Amino acid sequence: MPTATCAGHQALAARQHVDYAHRAAIQPKGYTMEALIWIGAIFALIGVAGLGWCIMIAWKARREGLDDEAMKARLQKVVAMNLAALGISSIGLMMVILGIFLG
């Protein structure tokens, strides 16, 4: 014969089962997190393309053989773009990780 404690656990388990079934019916099928993953991947690729662009500009400046002042001026612009591209890429990777964890 079950005790009151067992009956209480059974009732609790029955309520939790109903709650989980209700939540599954309401929640979307994960399309929101899938979209977050794809948007994050696009951001990451844009950031990586920006980093590649910065590398190409720096190589081009090096091949031109500019004097020190002109080289500093050009590389200062590249450093700003480099940080922006790195930031965009980092945000994209964070979005991908967040989408994977929440999805």
Would you kindly provide a written description of the structure presented here, covering whatever features stand out?
The protein has 103 residues and is mostly helical. The protein has one domain. The chain has three helices and no strands. Helix 2 runs antiparallel to helix 3. It is rod-shaped. The two termini are 43 Å apart. The model has no long low-confidence stretch (mean pLDDT 82).
Throw out a few tags for this protein.
mainly alpha; single chain; 103 residues; 3 helices
Question: What composes the largest sheet?
Answer: none
**From N to C, what is the helix and strand string?**
HHH
Secondary structure tally, helices: 3
What gap, in angstroms, lies between the N and C termini? 43 Å
- Strand % is under 5%
Structural class: mainly alpha
Instruction: Kindly provide the radius of gyration, computed on alpha-carbon positions and rounded to a whole number of angstroms.
Output: 27 Å
Number of domains: 1
Q: Give the low-confidence spans.
A: none
**Average residue-wise pLDDT:** 82
**Overall geometric form:** rod-shaped
Give a brief outline of the structure.
With 103 residues, this protein is mostly helical. It is built from three helices and no strands.
What's the topology here?
Elements: H1 4-26, H2 31-64, H3 68-102
Helix pairs in contact: 2-3
